[in-house]
Amino acid sequence: MPQALWQETLNRLKGRLSSTEIGCWVQAIHPAAIRERRLYGEVPSGLHLEQIRARLAPEIAGVLEELLGPGAELILSVNKDRARRETPSAAGANRRPNSHSFESFVVGESNALAHATAREVADRPGAAYNPLFLFGGVGLGKTHLASAVAHALGRGCPRRVSLVSAEALANELIRAILGGGIDGLRGRLRQLDALIVDDIQFLAGKERMQEEFFHTFNSLQAAGKQIVLASDQAPRAIANLEERLQSRFESGLIAEIRPPETLLRLAILEHKAKVLRFELPLDVARWVAENVVSSVRELEGALHRLVAACGWSKRTLDLAFAKEILRPLLRPALACTIEQVQRMVAESFRVTLDDLVRRGRASRLSVPRQVAMYLARKRTPATLAEIAAGFGGRDHSTVMYAVKQVEARRLADVEFAMLVDGLAGKLASA
Predict the structure, then answer these.
(1) Model pTM?
(2) What is the tens place of the pLDDT at every residue in 290-314?
(3) Interior CA angle at 21 toward 120 and 10, to 5°?
(4) How many CA atoms lie within 13 A of 360 on its CB side?
């Protein structure tokens, strides 16, 4: 009964909460019992308890009232024994999820599309998105997802799956050419059920490699075999890539992985700390998530540094010690202003500064104004109220709406995402 109620609650919450909120926090709730319109549940950590109470409790309570009646509520408690039971031990290494599996990938707004499409490809290879092109900055999870697809495809039923970096593939091609084995290499590649190539941008400027890959790509795609490519750039942004290859790469689905948002960074820290069996205080987790912002890899590095420091110093981790240990890793804080954002956006969209600020509803101004509000929120220390005041004294809810609109469009429109990221990069270097 509690499980059925909770499943229906999750179904209704999907239209009301973001994928980050559901994937990182809500799905961690384990329903235990129902008594007098109260659903009792357990979460694996104090961090989960705090985030759910502070951000999500009203929405969850609203759904429970729909299902159980007025006054329904969710009562949560921390059960660390459950977290320990769900975390594989070193002794159970043969049962432990692959470190680059879907099970170990933490999902949020910034990577939800890439994760969902990768899972679809793993479930229906050759039929869903072919090719699937994953791109994003260093350390954001592209290799993790590519490896997860390979791991899933190779599990259960026999398939010929190859996961290789473009550099390794190029080296293999060179050896085949020099050793007279090029026909054998071509035959082996074109008999695969799935070819997954990481760092495909390595092909740039290598004409012979691009020629061979073009024909292999065509052969596999024509046979309905799955192709997954990962890159640090979108296809059209890769310099010296032949137009016919760019066209092939864009013929399937392109999914970007963006730097993780704060909620996702918190969830990643919680997940990684649990795997390491390391007690991470809530205030330390929040501080790390707010200050180590560039990539998942940097977050992991920061956590490992804390674990090592606590080990050799025999000290208990607190916020002061964490700041001392991680200070060398931190980058200078951004000092961008709202006006700087407005001027750069106005120049990019060829509108005036007054157009962005004044209280008008011209449709041609809605996108540049929303982009400016989004960048002001992401790249300046200004509060929602301060940003709203800087745009003609609007309400702070207008800024919140603009941020959500831009984030949603960035997931669906690669060119728009590249435009916004380009502006963000200019602001960072200005």
Answers:
(1) 0.65
(2) 888 777 888 999 999 999 999 999 8
(3) 70
(4) 14
